[in-house]
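Q: What structure does this chain adopt?
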Amino acid sequence: MKDDWSRRRFLGAAGTVVAAGAVTGVGTASAAEKPSGGKVKIVGVCCSPRKGKTTAAAMRTCLDAAKAVSPGVEVELIELAGLKIPGDVAAGVPLEPGEKDDFPAIAEKIGDPGVAGIIVGTPVYFGNMSSLCKAFLDRCMVFRKNSFALGNKVGGVLAVGAARNGGQEITIQSILAAMLCQEMIVVGDGRPTAHIGGTLLNNGKDDISGDEFGLATAKNLGRRVGEVALMLTGKRI
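A:
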């Protein structure tokens, strides 16, 4: 990200201006929240409309694995559940008077120079991502328009479906395509599973604890994102 990047310029490009701290649900970035001591940060964005459910649980597992790679890794989970992210803004449609927009505060977090990796997680609906996830990715157009500000950040994806072959891989591919359009460096789940991302199964009771294979892919994804982020930033593993 260029040195002249500023909050005012960013929010203007995003199509909305908010005062610091005006967005509820997600706090704005502060110096205290930035990685300290030369650490790199991995952010997990949970795009389920249901807060604290299986996608969030899968993301916590993934982030824990990323953090375990090295003391030089810090992680943060951002849940989009309950937030308002109008996707039409990405197409130039202005907000309605008084319409709430929580995206700028989220964008400020993931666009921070200290963030080296971004993991996106979504439930699978009809073989694809949630509408909340699509709106989030569409709004990330602002980064592409700002000299590909997400370029060279590591990207990974996990998906939670209601069946073992419930569309998780198709969903992951769709999100990876969006990351590639941002010039991000995408990775899959690492060895020994080593496929395209975390693929998890919700057993119908909002529980993924028994999905040993799926949890392994989430852990391998987190580890892989952490390893590559450290390598790209020149940190020791």
